[in-house]
């Protein structure tokens, strides 16, 4: 038996996280946060000394792919409906959501052997229930036969504004220019890499959320998914 798969791709900060969580809860589907997988690999590679601080230093693809294949990664639903991410028995949810780890993630994400080490894990998540798959290449590479595909984007400036607001709400300081520059650098790397670049699938619905709030995005996408279901 096959279960329905809805893919939501697009750059960081376009609103995919909130949207995917809400859709998964409304439809009672599992949620695949594929960005978390690359963040985990980036963090673990850095901690293992396989990813130097220096951007331009050549990375050790074979050993990072080996480390990736050895990780025991589990997505565990919490009572709140959110999903805890446990790696080798320890929750990493609080450690991976920052710009530094986002940068590590996008550096390991260019490595073909790392991407293929994560492929089966991602595809297996559709074996037991309907799935909302959040990422960059969900509709193009991981689930090319998905039932509904969305590419959610927003201008880099709108995404930087949202990030500043989130940090302020969390009581943290925020440097708009530094955040904007980091977002642009990550977009550039994600969109121009040779394997699985971030781009809309040919059959995806394209939605620009720059001028929309989270509720408008949710309603639009939910309606679109219903037309497909
Ligand atoms: O979505 P998130 O910001 O958590 O993703 C972190 C990084 O992981 C992205 O910038 C991208 O480089 C990489 N990624 C990817 N493919 C995915 C999901 C994320 O290459 N499907």
Summarize the structure.
The chain has helices at residues 16-27, 34-47, 61-70, 99-108, 112-124, 138-142, 156-169, 176-192, 214-228; strands spanning 5-9, 30-33, 73-77, 83-87, 90-91, 131-135, 148-153, 205-208.
Question: Keywords for this structure?
Answer:
single chain, alpha/beta, 5-stranded parallel beta sheet, binds cytidine-5'-monophosphate
Description of the structure:
The chain is an alpha/beta fold. It is 48% helix and 16% strand. The chain has helices spanning 16-27, 34-47, 61-70, 99-108, 112-124, 138-142, 156-169, 176-192, 214-228, and strands at 5-9, 30-33, 73-77, 83-87, 90-91, 131-135, 148-153, 205-208. The strands form 2 sheets. Strands 2-6-1-7-8 form a 5-stranded parallel β-sheet. The protein has a 3-stranded antiparallel β-sheet with strand order 3-4-5, with helices on one face. A hairpin with a 2-residue loop joins strand 4 and strand 5. Helix 7 packs across helix 8. The chain is globular and about 50 Å long. Cytidine-5'-monophosphate (C5P) binds next to helix 2, helix 4 and helix 8. Residues 6-223 form the Cytidylate kinase domain.
């Amino acid at each position: 038996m096959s279960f329905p798969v809805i893919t939501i791709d697009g750059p960081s900060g376009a609103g995919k996280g909130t949207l995917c969580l809400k859709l998964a809860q409304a439809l009672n589907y599992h949620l695949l946060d594929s960005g978390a997988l690359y963040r985990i690999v980036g963090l673990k590679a850095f901690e293992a000394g396989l990813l130097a601080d220096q951007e331009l230093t050549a990375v050790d693809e074979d050993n990072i792919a080996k480390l990736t294949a050895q990780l025991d990664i589990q997505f565990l639903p919490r009572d709140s409906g959110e999903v805890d991410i446990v790696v080798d028995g320890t929750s990493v949810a609080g450690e991976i959501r920052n710009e530094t780890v986002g940068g590590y993630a996008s550096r390991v994400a260019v490595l073909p052997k790392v991407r293929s080490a994560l492929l089966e894990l991602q595809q297996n998540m559709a074996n037991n229930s309907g799935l909302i798959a959040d990422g960059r290449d969900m509709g193009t590479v991981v689930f090319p036969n998905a039932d509904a595909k969305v590419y959610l984007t927003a201008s880099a400036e709108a995404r930087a504004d949202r990030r500043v607001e989130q940090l302020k709400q969390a009581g943290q300081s925020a440097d708009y220019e530094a955040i904007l520059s980091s977002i642009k650098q990550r977009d550039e790397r994600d969109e121009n890499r040779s394997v699985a670049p971030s781009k809309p699938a040919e059959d995806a619905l394209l939605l620009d959320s720059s001028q929309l709030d989270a509720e408008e995005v949710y309603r639009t996408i939910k309606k679109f998914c219903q037309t497909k279901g």
